[in-house]
User: Fold ABC transporter domain-containing protein from Marvinbryantia formatexigens DSM 14469.
Amino acid sequence: MLLQTEKLSKRYRRSSGEVFFAANEVNLSIEAGQTAGLLGKSGSGKSTVGQMIAGLVKPSAGRIFYKGKELSYPYKGEERRKIQILFQHPEVSFNPALPLIKSMCEPYKLLKKPAGEEDILKDIEKFGLHREHLHRAPMELSGGEL
Assistant:
């Protein structure tokens, strides 16, 4: 099992003192190579579950396992590098004042990967992007390109 949750929950307290669950006892399992999606109504907790799995929000209860190892918040090491989240609005992930290549260098450097234009180009071409995309500002790219 690549990723698994057991009774993953996040509760909040409203200003009135009322407790509510953004996610309540979520169990899921994802095998290596498998693609999974969370479906549900607006406000049903999909983003909260994703943020807990990515280590961005601390669960109120439950457990998360990665490659059989229970994770603890905040993530460190391999888990921090390997478990990521892509938000619905990718344009907020990029500095609007910089060309795409400048923003893309950051994660390469964090992962200690070569961050030259040719290195990044090799990766983005897999997604139908080209050299000219690297030199555009985020506002000059479509949501899909971002």
